[in-house]
Amino acid sequence: MTSPGNRHERLLGKVRDKVAGEERALLDWLRSRPDYRPRFQYFLGLLSDRRLSTIESRCERPVIRLLCVQAPLELIWAAGFQPVKIASGSSAEAQFSTLNWPALMCPLIKGILTNLETEAELAPGPWVIPTSCDWVVKFWEARQKVAPGGGEVQWLELPHLKNQPGSQARWLEEIRRLKKFLEKLRGRKIGREDLLQAVMALNRAWAAVIELKKARRDGRLASVWFLTILGAFFLDRLDRWTAEVEAALAELGAGQSAGPRIFLAGSPIFFPNFKLPALLEEAGLLTVADDLCSSERTTPGGQVFEDVSESGLLASLAGRYHQGCLCPTFGDNERRVNNILSQRRESDFQGVVFGVLKGCHPYDLESSTIEDTLKCQGLKFLRLETDYATEDRQNLLTRLEAFRHNLAGE
């Protein structure tokens, strides 16, 4: 008679095989594209092996696991750690569960919980968890059901009202607590020079990202490659990733027109689930900008400091990561709509496609209010609700093709 433990391990083995198949299929598709360049293989290679042990060996520093990019990355690099955003875009991981999770659970969190079961090395080690959405807040409790014990966690309590008196001061205190947590883990103080060096490194990386954005806007870089390159952001040393981006930019060709231009908003898109960007391309729509936290919002941008003292650097970082964040979990977030409208002036797009993952409640709720505002500004808007599975692919494609005809006035 087969024991429950052996049966469970066989199920996990099947999930691992399915995940590997999903990743292999996407990587093969990317390599087969006519716009593939050998320079892109660096980024594909990083995505093909995202094991934390591999990342630590590659970066020669221990990993800090992040559930949200709200934590100042510069502080983590300055402490001698490699920040890694833990995410899952796998349909197999999102669909698998031996526990009684909610039916409309965030597929990203559900996929990560499955990943904790299939990849034993993920659970032990330090985590930094900003309290962004409710799913992230409840993650640690759910994690204990999947992989009890192990791993230190530093919560960052995120003030969800940017303009409330005292919010910025409370967030700055959270950043100082994070600094002490990192120093205790590393066994040494974070010096001003360490922090300043990390700031300058990210400024250089952000300059490269700006050029990537221009290349996508001009039609020289397809959106799927933009997502691929940014998807590899956490998987290598920052200086090496930046140098590879700069080299890739130098090899891009001339821009090409590819149909009506759109802005992509909504829930994040993680490897290997490129269903929506691939469908946009297939429908003849050109994605020229986005506000995804897995893409353009991987970092809040570069920074110029007036005060380069340690306290000045911390205060400036805290302000940028709080005030500059466009996450829909904030209660006063007019900047989110204003960002789309300002990018319209730069990127000249005609419509907005808003993707909502089933179970991603903040984006789901926000979509209707954003739709009303943008339509009043003359932008056409399409909301697509989906998940990680592929069964709705044809239905989504049909709606996107109709949206393209609408944008083109056909």
Helix content: 40-55%
Instruction: Spell out the helices and strands N to C.
Output: HHHEHEHHEHHEHHHHEHEHHEHEH
The portion of residues forming beta strands comes to 5-15%
Distance between the termini: 64 Å
Low-confidence stretches: none
Mean pLDDT: 92
Domain count: 1
Any idea what the shape is? Answer: globular
The description of the largest β-sheet is: 4 strands, parallel
Number of strands: 8
SS-derived structural category: alpha/beta
Q: Enumerate how many helices there are, as a single number.
A: 17
Question: What integer value in Å does the Rg equal?
Answer: 21 Å
How would you sum up this structure, described in words?
The chain is an alpha/beta fold and 410 residues long. The chain has helices at 4-32, 41-48, 52-59, 73-78, 91-95, 107-118, 134-137, 139-146, 167-186, 192-217, 223-231, 238-250, 275-282, 310-323, 334-347, 361-376, 393-408; strands at residues 63-66, 82-85, 127-130, 153-156, 261-266, 286-290, 351-357, 380-386. It has one domain. The protein has 17 helices and 8 strands. It has a 4-stranded parallel sheet with strand order 2-1-3-4. It has a 4-stranded parallel sheet with strand order 6-5-7-8, sandwiched between helices. The protein is globular. The protein starts with a helix and ends with a helix. The mean pLDDT is 92.
Give the secondary structure arrangement, pairings included.
Layout: H1 4-32, H2 41-48, H3 52-59, E1 63-66, H4 73-78, E2 82-85, H5 91-95, H6 107-118, E3 127-130, H7 134-137, H8 139-146, E4 153-156, H9 167-186, H10 192-217, H11 223-231, H12 238-250, E5 261-266, H13 275-282, E6 286-290, H14 310-323, H15 334-347, E7 351-357, H16 361-376, E8 380-386, H17 393-408
Parallel strand pairs: 1-2, 1-3, 3-4, 5-6, 5-7, 7-8
Helix pairs in contact: 6-8, 9-14, 10-12, 13-17
